[in-house]
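Researcher: Let's do a round of design. I'm pasting the structure tokens now; please hold your answer until I've finished.
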């Protein structure tokens, strides 16, 4: 193992040598130096993935097994039964999201596109609906909205776009201290809509930002481990790019992070806000 440069990343090499000559005399040696850095990194990521996924699956499975055992072995009143069943349902939903994320990233790695159900989408309403559960589960955080009501509609899959917003909001809450403000803003830029989600959390270094949209990458940005498989941003990038948009971020260590994404405006006749508010909600409700 050697360092490529002071403070740089280590590189790994396999060195093999063989003598050259005849039975009576060795006239030299042949040395083969093989760069094993990529293989070493793949093996490290594979091990890390197995450990991470196992941990993420174990947490909801433990809750499901525990509460189901209580329901089947104890006599409980109706109120406690309902509460435990709700907890089992929530943990099963968490398991389902992990599995869906793994399937999505498998599509990304194989180059297969997502199956998008495109329709006119009112982003202001979609973001409000995605945000509602966060207001309940993260009451210590303040959510400021700016410019969303003035946005024109875009064309996209509301289920997938809600998935992007949920991933980005989850990261903003996860890496921000309680009591901080998370700002969601929207504006029209040329023929696209730009959405930004800004937090005042711990931020990231330039080195961490280079790999942030890679599958299974989790920035080591604190002294306490954050839960997650490390797929949210990679999946979000896949969804946004397959909608014809772009996603990027700006971050400063100990100052916070802002994630931006753009989506093309709806082509053709642009329906009114009232029309986009009455679009079918089936997939959006699935996402929420």
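Researcher: That's everything. Go ahead.
Model: Designed sequence:
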């Amino acid at each position: 193992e050697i360092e490529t440069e002071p403070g740089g990343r280590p590189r790994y090499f396999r060195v093999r040598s063989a003598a050259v000559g005849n039975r009576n005399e060795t006239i030299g040696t042949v040395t083969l130096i093989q760069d094993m850095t990529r293989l070493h990194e793949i093996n490290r990521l594979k091990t890390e993935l197995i450990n991470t996924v196992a941990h993420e699956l174990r947490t909801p499975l433990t809750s499901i097994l525990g509460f189901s055992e209580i329901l089947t072995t104890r006599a409980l009143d109706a109120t406690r039964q309902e509460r435990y069943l709700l907890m089992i349902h929530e943990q099963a939903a968490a398991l389902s999201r992990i599995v869906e994320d793994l399937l999505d990233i498998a599509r990304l790695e194989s180059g297969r596109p997502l199956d998008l159900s495109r329709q006119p989408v009112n982003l202001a309403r979609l973001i409000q609906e995605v945000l509602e559960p966060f207001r309940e589960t993260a009451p210590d955080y303040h959510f400021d909205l700016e410019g969303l009501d003035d946005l024109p509609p875009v064309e996209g899959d509301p289920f997938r776009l809600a998935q992007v917003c949920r991933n980005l909001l989850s990261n903003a809450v996860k890496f921000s201290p309680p009591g901080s403000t998370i700002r969601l803003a929207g504006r029209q830029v040329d023929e696209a809509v730009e959405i930004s989600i800004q937090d005042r959390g711990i931020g990231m270094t330039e080195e961490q930002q280079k790999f942030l949209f890679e599958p299974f990458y989790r920035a080591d940005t604190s002294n306490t481990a954050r839960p997650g498989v490390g797929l949210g941003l990679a999946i979000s990038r896949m969804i946004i790019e397959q909608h014809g948009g772009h996603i990027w971020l700006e971050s400063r260590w100990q100052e916070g992070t802002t994630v931006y994404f753009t989506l093309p405006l709806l082509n053709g006749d642009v329906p009114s806000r009232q029309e986009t508010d009455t679009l079918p909600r089936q997939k959006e409700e699935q996402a929420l």
